[in-house]
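Quick one, tokens below. Sequence please?
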């Protein structure tokens, strides 16, 4: 079992920045694939970014087209924490952001563990 706890959401003006954190526990974090997803009201949960342990014994980052160049996913293995740095935020980034673990791709159903979510609201 993996427990995930997100933090860092809030209200920000368009063009501003936020950093989300997700602390993981329950399994070895070093090789745990991590992802961020978001869900806006009335919409399906969508992929934002992932950080996955690859065959080359390194981490690979992947991003949704809508956030490329603005968001950065990173991890601190010493703290068992994955981050999502969000810059140049837009009102359409408003959503509940979820941290997920143990997935293989950008598909939400492939992730076995989920955090409780943190609200991000971007005002225009």
């Amino acid at each position: 079992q993996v427990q995930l706890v997100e933090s860092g959401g809030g209200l920000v003006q368009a063009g501003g920045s936020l950093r989300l954190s997700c602390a993981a526990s329950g399994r070895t974090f070093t090789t745990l694939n991590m992802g961020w997803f978001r869900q806006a009201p009335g919409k399906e949960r969508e992929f934002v970014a992932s950080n996955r342990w690859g065959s080359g014994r390194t981490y690979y980052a992947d991003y949704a087209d809508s956030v490329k160049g603005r968001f950065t996913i990173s991890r601190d293995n010493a703290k068992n924490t994955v981050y999502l740095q969000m810059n140049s935020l837009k009102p359409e980034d408003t959503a509940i952001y979820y941290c997920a673990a143990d997935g293989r791709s950008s598909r939400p159903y492939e992730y076995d563990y989920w955090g409780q979510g943190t609200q991000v609201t971007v005002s225009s």
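The radius of gyration is 14 Å. The chain has a mean pLDDT of 95.
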